[in-house]
Amino acid sequence: MHDNNKRAIKVAIVYHCIAHYREAVFHELCNTDENIEYTLISGVSDCIPSLKTVDVYKSRLPVEQGGLRWRLVKNHWLKNKILWQDGVASLGVSKEFDAIIYLGVVYHISTWVSCILAKLTGKKIYMWSHGFLRREPGLKGLMRSAFYRLADGMLLYHHRARELFIERGFSPEKLDVLYNSLDVSTQKKVRDQIESAELELKRSEIFKNPSDPVLLWIGRLTSQKKLNMLIQAARQLKNQDTNVNILFVGEGPEKQSLSDEVDRCGLKKQVCFYGASHNEDELGPLINLSDICIAPGEVGLTCMHSLVYGTPVITHDNPDFQMPEYEAIKPGVSGMFFKYGSIESLAETIKVWLDQGLPRDEIRDACFRVIDDDYNPSNQVKIINNMVRGNPSIQFSLSER
User: Fold this and answer.
1) N or C terminus of the chain: which is more exposed, having fewer CB within 10 Å?
2) Looking at residue 348, what is its pLDDT?
3) What's the pTM value of the predicted model, to 2 decimals?
4) Angle at CA 333, nearest 5°, toward 327 and 335?
């Protein structure tokens, strides 16, 4: 509860929309007891029509009853990239809020205007952002730098972004690594109810040879994820007398192409296209029964979803073409990396992981620790609260972690 003798710091959080996977951290922010009152400001539309978002009903439900302190604004998208949000610019001069946390996307024009106005009125400005994913020379990099320099502090998803900011002359004290998370509390409840007999039964229902290792992909089936590499790697393993099953959980535009690739590779009896699901009670056992999650392209939140259920992750080793969540993979502990773009390396890495023969319980515990230590809503809220209070967390470089 707030200290009644001390006025709460009022903070607006500006997002384009509230994705379903963000609900847990936003709910925890709305319920923080650190004398900070957060209010979400967002539209309901995203530039990705398939993105599942939080029901706007939560904006009308009291926080005490599971709702969110959430005000809706109208989004105006141009070419699915450039965004103007009604009412966001005026937040910069509003006397209601002491600070504003913006989703730091350089293509959100209303954020530029709001930030400049907030700067002129003395508000604290923070950005919750991927920041720099890679080194960006030229005009684009200069524009990003100018945008991010409007902020008094950056809340970044990973340590590499922090190091790239420091390279560009940003003060380390203004850069916090926030990580990322899903609804860990719900996922742990599901995880605790999973029984080994249930997993064995489900494997036998899905695959003809359930004793063969299961390689999982969970997420959208898109060309960006390079999932054809997984199918080709499975064919190479089969030619080397290592049979594996593949479980695709998700839908997307590449489904037919991937199905055709399965037929060409003679793997039809080893591959299951399960379909999409947003139900953790259904997803938890599917992830838990899998031996490895494979992300041939960028890994993203798939990494978090796999690790929370104890399934290690294999993805590629080129950080310039990765999403921030790849940093959660500790080689030989919670997964491995293969050489970017190489099917041969992917197949070899899968085999190395399978051949090392680590006890499954030991692997699960190692994956759980990654989520428990960093990638959870409670940790994110603590880091956000610290920055708002002017006490950024102590951060370490990648080489020190």
Assistant:
1) N
2) 98
3) 0.91
4) 60
pLDDT at 287: 97
Residue 399 has pLDDT above 50, yes or no: no
> Domain 184-373 belongs to what architecture?
3-Layer(aba) Sandwich (3.40)
* CATH number belonging to the domain at 9-181+376-392, selected among 3.40.50.2000, 3.20.20.70, 3.40.980.10, 3.30.565.10: 3.40.50.2000
Q: Could you give the residue range(s) of every CATH 3.40.50.2000 domain in the chain?
A: 9-181+376-392, 184-373
Mean pLDDT for 352-365 is 93
Residue 46: what pLDDT?
76
